[in-house]
Amino acid sequence: SKLTEGSVTWKTPSNIALVKYWGKQDPQTPKNTSISFTLDACFTLTTLDYKLKNRQSGETGFNFEIYFEGEKKDDFKPKINKFFERIAQYVPFLNEYDFVIKSRNSFPHSSGIASSASGMSALALCIVSIEKQLNPEMKDEYFNKKASFLARLGSGSACRSIEGELIVWGNHSIIEGSSNLFGVKFPYKIHKNFKNYHDTILLVDEGEKKVSSTVGHKLMHNHPFAKQRFSQANDNISKITETLQNGDLKQFIAIVESEALSLHAMMMTSNPYFILMKPNTLKIINKIWEFRAKTNSNICFTLDAGANVHILFPENEKESVNNFIINELIQFCQENHYICDRIGFGAKQL
Ligand code: PMV
Q: What is the pTM of this model?
């Protein structure tokens, strides 16, 4: 029986890496293992309408329309077409349907928050949902793996946006079941100190990213410190795996902040080189360090490939840290913009 038409909707979170993915090889596999917190408030909502093509039309390519926040977006087409080309061999029904993709983000467009992780994972989940309807015997475990596998081919970090709360991507000897091809749930018990962990995102620079991650990953080819960086990241996976189980927040801070600065150090020492932090990024980092010295708080920061600062802190410090953020850090944000997020539990079908 052939599925003729229908519609699926997924709500898929963004994620923030604790140990960073920076450097890849074909076909979109990472040079080192990474681990991320799945987020909650930052998400993409995507509806995929599908309708079996009229066979007589003789068309062979992919046929789809894209609407983003209610507006038709033809400029998104090449990226999605490339994604479809990459995944077609794993979802051969893709060119048998006409699609309409309707997508919106919970966070402001061009806020400097990467939307590729939540966006690509949402589309991947919609596609696997269609596969599941064509093949109802598909097991739940396979479903998530397949979605992560496809999302990875859209954007590497997107493979970490299917499940929660902590996801590992990339082969690593101490992470059972880990793979370069899809993300897996952190396989050990997470210490209660990390329950409901907060991530407040300070929007220092809401402009478009100066260096796309495609360009960024390429900068790790022939990078003078590449080998050391990949082995540092893999060592940090071992360390943070212990930390996440024993709840040692001081050790957590040391790993996470070092990872953020190492990511930026790679960009500063590549050819060509970039500084993606802004003066306000550094002001915020220094304020965080002062606050920690004064109060023994467990607040820490991490960074993506941009100027915005993610502030991580445990649930039991939320009042004091929120006061600190509002009184002392918001002034360094563009138009006082920030987003309160926390560790989340993964994508949901609506
Ligand atoms: O998924 P990509 O190709 O956009 O790469 C993301 C890279 C970082 O966000 C900088 C780090 C990470 O692990 O998410």
A: 0.96
